[in-house]
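Need residues for this backbone.
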């Protein structure tokens, strides 16, 4: 029965690929090639890092394996948390579950099929990113293809174990607390756990790997490198297996592989046994709504002349839906933790010169812009698609597509502007940047935030996905990739446009006479204006036309 359900998924994927014609086929091929290029870029970066670490005499190999162990530990943690979130949607709120649970199919078979789907979506991206790292590791040390093949065989049970942790937690929580409120608790706990993990990684000061002088004595540094990293977790089992493959100790590698496969088989078998007894009860309880004692009060819509009547009504609806959804509040907790760690990292930068601090403040436009782009991918880009099956209600109302898109952009622009001000002003204060650099970086960040909002709504309208079960499917879709790639190109071009005036400013600080070349400044300003015009207008226009044609 499980094989039949998996065959259903395979046929669905086959039919989706077979339906690609013309533009869709070429578009997907182009972006698949871009994805391969991104993996190759990661491979080149990992190769340079590994080659540099191996040049450190005596301890180069220890450094590299310590980094590998930390990377696998972070992978295990991230996959477990991702499995918790993915299993919540896939196992209990998936659209096709209402048909599967009413079909003559055992609950255990439904759970097995959905849990495998959850494990795949929770781990495939992390697993793909590990491939260029391991390939670079094999090339630098000359391990050859047996090492890469052994990694491919060992990483499957490793990722399965990591995802099974999240699936098990979701299964138990939804059975013990059979209420829709449990879903809200899981969202909050998962966000807090991600914040805690990220904070612990930062406060553990991983820079000690390349700064042995930060430790008291050399012996302490060597003990730190040689000590096991979480020896009771599967990440260390995989690390030992890879070390055995590198040393061509095939028997030891096979022993670690048997340990990983045996643990994965036992854990998944226990999950299947447990699901046969509690999955259906947990699913039934998850469909129940939590009781509410609040009295429904119908309030008049607020008047906002600067928004317009149509946009004000949509803005009020968006605000109400946002504050009712606890997933957004849990994401805010995660964002707050990441901002704290980001600013903490800036404060700890080893910069002694005022000019270097001002330069770091300017470069903060790029790093903070990347943070804003990631937030836009999470909140702004999916905003159109999150209308979901209620899209026909919006389109049947006397509201145009332009008003809807404008409301989405304005609703995202407010928190994005606050985020840009916090990141820019705090970084400038922590780095004690000079006045010119501080104002240029802060103004550039504000414009970047507004442009990213317009691009997020525009690309979200250009690639709408109203029939999805999980918001992560929207973020990891082709449209999400296009949005992130375009955002990174835009941020890089912004840095390039502002770099010439900043160079002239530093030349003037160093005492050069006639440092400001005003024709070059005018050219940079014109390029920056054209860049922002393209970022604001092109995705917006294409998205509006695509969204209007979606109903035609």
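Answer:
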């Amino acid at each position: 029965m499980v094989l039949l359900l998996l065959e259903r998924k395979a046929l669905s994927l086959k039919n989706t690929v077979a339906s690609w014609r013309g533009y869709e086929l070429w578009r997907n091929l182009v972006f698949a090639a871009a994805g391969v290029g991104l993996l190759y870029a990661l491979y080149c970066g990992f190769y340079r890092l590994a080659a540099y670490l191996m040049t450190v005499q005596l301890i180069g190999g220890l450094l590299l394996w310590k980094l590998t162990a930390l990377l696998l530990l972070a992978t295990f943690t991230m996959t477990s948390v991702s499995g918790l979130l993915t299993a919540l949607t896939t196992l209990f709120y998936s659209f096709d579950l209402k048909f599967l649970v009413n079909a003559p199919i055992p609950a255990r078979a439904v759970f097995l099929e959905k849990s495998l789907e959850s494990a795949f979506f929770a781990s495939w991206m992390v697993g793909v990113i590990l491939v260029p790292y391991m390939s670079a590791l094999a090339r630098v040390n000359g391990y050859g293809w047996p090492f890469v093949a052994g990694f491919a065989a060992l990483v499957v049970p490793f990722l399965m174990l990591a995802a099974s942790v999240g699936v098990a937690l979701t299964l138990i929580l939804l059975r013990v607390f059979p209420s829709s409120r449990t879903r809200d608790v899981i969202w909050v706990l998962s966000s807090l756990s991600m914040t805690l993990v990220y904070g612990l990684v930062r406060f553990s000061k991983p820079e000690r790997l390349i700064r042995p002088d930060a430790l008291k004595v050399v012996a302490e540094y060597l003990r730190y490198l040689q000590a096991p990293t979480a020896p009771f977790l599967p990440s260390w089992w995989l690390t030992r297996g890879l070390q055995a493959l590198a040393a061509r100790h095939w028997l030891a590698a096979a022993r670690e592989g048997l340990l990983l496969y045996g643990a994965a088989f036992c854990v998944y078998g226990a999950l299947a046994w447990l699901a046969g007894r509690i999955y259906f009860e947990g699913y039934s309880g998850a469909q129940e709504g939590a009781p509410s004692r609040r009295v429904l009060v119908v309030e008049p819509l607020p008047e906002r002349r600067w928004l317009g009547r149509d946009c004000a009504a949509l803005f009020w609806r968006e605000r109400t839906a946002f504050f009712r959804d606890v997933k957004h509040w849990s994401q805010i907790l995660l964002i707050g933790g990441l901002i704290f760690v980001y600013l903490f990292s800036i404060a700890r930068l080893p910069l002694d010169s005022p000019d270097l601090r001002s330069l770091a403040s300017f470069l903060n436009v790029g790093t903070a812009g990347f943070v804003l782009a990631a937030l836009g991918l999470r909140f702004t880009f999916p905003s159109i698609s999150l209308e979901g099956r209620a899209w026909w209600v919006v389109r049947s109302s006397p509201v145009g597509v332009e008003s809807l898109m404008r409301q989405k952009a304005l609703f995202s622009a407010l928190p994005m502007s606050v985020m840009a001000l916090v990141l820019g002003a705090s970084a400038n204060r922590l780095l004690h940047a000079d006045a010119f650099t501080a104002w240029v970086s802060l103004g550039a960040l504000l414009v970047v935030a507004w442009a990213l909002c317009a691009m997020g709504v525009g690309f979200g309208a250009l690639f709408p996905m109203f029939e999805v079960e999980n918001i992560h499917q929207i973020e990891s879709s082709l449209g999400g990739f296009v949005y992130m790639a375009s955002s990174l190109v835009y941020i890089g071009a912004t840095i390039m446009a502002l770099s010439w005036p900043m160079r002239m400013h530093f030349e003037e600080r160093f005492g050069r006479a006639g440092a400001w070349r005003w024709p070059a400044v005018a050219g940079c300003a014109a390029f920056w204006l054209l860049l922002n015009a393209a970022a604001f207008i092109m995705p917006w226009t294409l998205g509006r036309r695509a969204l209007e044609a979606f109903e035609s």
